[in-house]
């Protein structure tokens, strides 16, 4: 393809998060292994950073955060597959923050290398530079749908090395030859059939040298991976016995909440807390950055007292209203705000000059993550030791941030990660943890659990950026001839990077991700990103840049295809040069029995496609325009993941991701008035509920490539355009702004 | 005041208007009941008062006194789950799981009132319980499975 050469050359102009930090450290440091942070207890063996064996049995360390996507399950399964233990028979723990748990894949999403590009430079960027940067920065991060690709080999190898170490210990004890030993269900089996439980070998295994290299088993031999399994946390989550961070309990626990500047300011002009201080159960009202914290003996008493504090807020750094923000976005399509043009094929200007030009403007709103568990953290500051109990995707950044707040070294901050009640990216932020630390510092020695009210949570959600897009295009002879897409957005990395302590330089891929990198051979094809400076602090929201760009890119592509008079599925297939992508389009066509977009009176079908996080994903949505409004009848999702490790969970992520995308496209937006978020709870921030869920939803994961990928995010981007395209097919009304409920009614 | 929770009697010293949710969570340590919104919009705090599903964030402690309060912990246990919990576990409904105690309490109460629900009945009864992970398709299947099991006894 013509695109590959251009992408390869552009690859040298790297410039996002990771690479900028990598250069300074040098190669020698990249080659130096990080130490194992786990310290064995009495009689325990820390076989490597992921496997601990003591007299009670095996503990698997699963350092990636679990916010419902099943990260603990898949990490445990990868380890267990080679270690020969039953995941249900061992313990798991998240482990401490430590650089050895860095995510070698996560930085690759920040690079201007298309997932479809398998040229040598692209591979070097993805696998070498990305790994080096993430390692040097010690990026222990859960995100970017990278848990599976990062862990796939690493954790199986850790399990295999631990297994072989235990076999060596058994050989040393019994005098048997290691080659004659096998392992099964947490035991080493001697040639005579005697079984030595791993727990019994712990003390000796601690003294044995681990092998340098162990070959991994052929997937054909797998017993756990690839099989439908019962999730380890299912029974606890269905019986109220699963503890989340918000459920943390310990002796002497105090409860707290905070109220801080609702317009992202960091100052107050006056505080009157006299009434609050006299309320029952209130221990202290303390001033913190941008507001107050209330410490009490019960969360409700703290929240009620916080409402009773009279606060005059200082100035807000953000625009007054959504209208003002849209104006700022509309004025951002300028040369000095141009952030990237990673896609520029053919000659768009020349192609449009002689053609009948189609033009459109699309809008995507701010969106809150709004997970159901409000942000919370328990912090205890005792002398030179700080303990933090919270669910986090960024334990090392959080550790450093809390250390800065309290004024200690990061090593003095002990982070205890917990199960997370939904995140969608919000747990990549830690403002609530820093606030909890500020509050807990005032009562040294006492553990304080700080819980945000839902209203506080919505006001400080670090939303997904809104986006304004302008498109031009032309068709000729029944084909899409030219497509020029310009997207204006806030930079997620520029906003989030400094909060992580990670340098963010150069163009921000997130502004155009899911748009610039789509594998379509449109003869004249250009995608330009514009950066809207300042504004609301924004962060990663499930599928990040692609969450809006999937709609922007595919929505207008559908308009062009319609103008060309072509079939939506056939024309996408004709334009698509990437074989795995064509396969997901063909799959979704087969699943729905595609025979065109119109399905009879008032019924329509839309197809959409987006490549994000390396996963080509296609979706079809079928709708009926009823007297009561639009009804979604069916949703079909197909994605290429390379290999399915847990079919039950992959199905859950694919259907859940598609519905998550649909629900927000239909109903959700954050708007601003008086410098504040207007939707402070679920009564105004509407999202998908059961009555709107289609009766038919089918998912198919393809395994036709050798690139193993994560599936948490990729099903989100194609959902909105598939719905918009379906509504167009059913009603003739083209939706160019989310949420769609602004223009159409849903049943 | 005195509260009957999961068959046990507790003496609690709280304001009359303290929401039952916070009595359960912070006074009694029964944290299976979740805080999500505080305004009866999400359903995560659903418990039973004399078998009827209520939002505990909108139920005053004083109004719950005298009633038989059942929380998710009292419905069933991992070892001996209620049929609705068993259906949830078998269907593998939960992703993050935070809303599921409320979903299950809502479903258990609803299925006692409507043992043979139509799809429309299920949508109506469960429509007030939010799931941000969108586990809805499996949730629907689990309600149907539980209904069938409960009818069979």
Automatic annotation (TrEMBL), chain A:
InterPro entries: Ald_Oxase/Xan_DH_a/b, AldOxase/xan_DH_MoCoBD1, AldOxase/xan_DH_MoCoBD2, AldOxase/xan_DH_Mopterin-bd_sf, N-heterocyclic_Hydroxylase, OxRdtase_Mopterin-bd_su_IorB
Membrane-traversing stretches: 12-30
Source taxon at top rank: Bacteria
Keywords, comma-separated and alphabetical: Membrane, Transmembrane, Transmembrane helix
Coiled coil start-end: none
UniProt domain Aldehyde oxidase/xanthine dehydrogenase a/b hammerhead: residue ranges: 239-317
GO molecular function: oxidoreductase activity
Pfam families associated with the record: MoCoBD_1 (PF02738), MoCoBD_2 (PF20256)
UniProt-recorded name of the protein: Xanthine dehydrogenase family protein molybdopterin-binding subunit
Automatic annotation (TrEMBL), chain B:
Domain of life the protein comes from: Bacteria
Alphabetized SUPFAM superfamilies for the sequence: 2Fe-2S ferredoxin-like, CO dehydrogenase ISP C-domain like
Keywords, alphabetical: 2Fe-2S, Iron, Iron-sulfur, Metal-binding, Oxidoreductase
Every 2Fe-2S ferredoxin-type domain range: 1-75
InterPro entries in the cross-refs: 2Fe-2S-bd (IPR002888), 2Fe-2S-bd_dom_sf (IPR036884), 2Fe-2S_ferredoxin-like_sf (IPR036010), 2Fe-2S_ferredoxin-type (IPR001041), 2Fe2S_fd_BS (IPR006058), Beta-grasp_dom_sf (IPR012675), Diverse_Oxidoreductases (IPR051452)
Keyword field contains Iron-sulfur: yes
GO MF terms held by the record: 2 iron, 2 sulfur cluster binding; metal ion binding; oxidoreductase activity
Coiled coil: none
Keyword Metal-binding applies: yes
PANTHER family membership: BLR6218 PROTEIN, OXIDOREDUCTASE WITH IRON-SULFUR SUBUNIT
UniProt name for this protein: (2Fe-2S)-binding protein
